[in-house]
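anyone seen this seq b4? input:
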Amino acid sequence: MSNQSPTTEVFVVPPSGGSAHSENDGEAFRLVGTVLLCEDDDQLRRVSARVLRRTGVTVITASTGQEAIECVRADGGTIDLVLLDVLLPDMNGCDVFHTIYQMNPQIRVILISGYSESQVERRLAAIKPSYIMMKPVDAKMLRQTVARFLPPQKETIA
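predicted toks r here
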């Protein structure tokens, strides 16, 4: 296993014509895994968690950086993916990412930011997240991005 940080892919999600988190866009993913969602905006956290749960994943939520760190510390290795807002009330999300990385360098982290790509990159130093997603993020993009990092649910034949 390499000690190098994973390659970072950056993409910008253009604003959609509808709601920022429209849940009825007709695409269904069935995924397996546990996602830690750290977002300080209560409504955005609830809607995003609901979108993710509809894909079949288990969702753990945190509203602060310290809560996210404690979730990872107490996790025991079941968290497969962290969705982490860059701007949190108690800590900078990039600092939270670095702390999580020190605790578990194998955990995949997607940073979600309203800042420009270059602003986020400047704060990251040498360790890079699995992905950087730029706000606004709609439900379809959220599901598609998470699907890139979690395995699909296997279909059972009756």
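The CA atoms of residues 1 and 106 lie 10 Å apart. The chain is about 30% helix and 20% strand. kinda curious what u guys think
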